[in-house]
Design brief:
The chain is 59% helix and 15% strand. By secondary structure, the chain is α+β, with helices and mostly antiparallel strands. It starts with a helix and ends in a 7-residue tail after the last helix.
Length: 301
């Protein structure tokens, strides 16, 4: 608009001059207009793929969210989802800008609070990472377990188990069924390789505790129904496709009892490390207060 006004003024001022002079001014104006487009192209040398009001989404931004190696169909789906999300955000912002008061649109304090919180968090993480001892000895685990046993009362049963899914007509059906319930080393030797070649699935958790929900899921039922089928520590289910799912319960600990320490070890380590983190942060905050008072950077009036 400014260029157009200048052009009109120049034409009026040059009415008595030769027509070629007017054409020269027009040529200059067009050059200026073209220059503006070139500058705009340098700022956004990209293709717009969507627009909401005066805001545009450019192809380069869209390409940056599409992972390499995805199929064309997935690329289209990701692009459509991103464009729609971007459009909804822009439309919401426009709506908020139109209907909120000046006071409501002032987010200076919230942004400042968020900035402070983010910087505080980032420094805390650096401080913790530089000082945190992540080694937790077995004695430390056992001491914590002895002093906090009520924390480890079981909500669901846990088991040590061998689970087998095998076709009923497999020549190794009876052999494997017998072996998974055996306590003899000779029977257990080679059971993995035999199950690998004959079974649809084999899980050996005879040395480590696992929650009963996980095993019941293999049978497609809840653990109460699963245990109702247990006979002599065996649980069996014949499936429609002709396979048989078999679990042998090597050990069982019921819900409501205190879990053994080995089942709780990783959880206890997480708790101890979490406590150490909190202690470091508390010590840092106390140190900051004391240092601030000592250096007179902090005063209470």
């Amino acid at each position: 608009m400014i260029i157009f006004a200048v052009l009109c003024a120049c034409i009026c001022a040059c009415e008595r001059k030769m027509q070629t002079r007017i054409f020269a001014i027009l040529a200059l104006a067009m050059t200026l207009l073209c220059g503006c487009k070139v500058i705009d192209g340098l700022i956004h040398d990209d293709e717009a793929v969507a627009r909401v009001g005066s805001e545009k989404l450019y192809l380069s931004e869209l390409q940056s969210v599409i992972p390499d190696g995805v199929s064309p169909e997935d690329s289209i789906a990701i692009a459509e989802q991103y464009i729609n999300t971007w459009a909804k955000d822009m439309l919401f912002l426009a709506l908020a800008d139109e209907h909120l008061s000046k006071t409501e649109k002032d987010v200076t304090k919230e942004l400042d609070d968020y900035r402070k919180s983010l910087l505080k968090y980032r420094y805390e993480q650096r401080y913790i990472n530089e000082r945190l001892d992540t080694v937790v000895s077995q004695k430390t685990v056992e001491d914590y377990y002895e002093n906090h046993q009520e924390l480890f009362r079981l909500d669901v049963p846990i088991v040590k188990v061998r689970f087998l899914d095998i076709m009923a007509d497999s020549p190794n059906f009876e052999t494997l069924r017998k072996r998974i319930g055996s306590q003899k080393e000779a029977d257990l030797a080679g059971i993995d390789s035999l199950a690998f070649s004959s079974a649809l699935k084999y899980i050996d958790r005879s040395e480590n505790w696992i929650d009963a929900v996980s095993i019941a899921r293999e049978f497609g039922m809840d653990y109460a129904d699963m245990f109702s089928r247990m006979k002599n520590n065996y649980i069996e289910s014949v499936e429609d496709r002709g396979d048989v799912k078999i679990a042998y319960i090597c050990d069982l600990q019921r819900a409501g009892t205190i879990a053994p320490v080995e089942y709780c070890t990783e959880r206890i380590k997480d708790i101890i490390i979490g406590n150490r983190k909190r202690e470091l942060v508390n010590a840092l905050e106390q140190e900051l207060l004391e240092s601030g008072l000592a250096q007179q950077n902090f005063e209470i009036y």
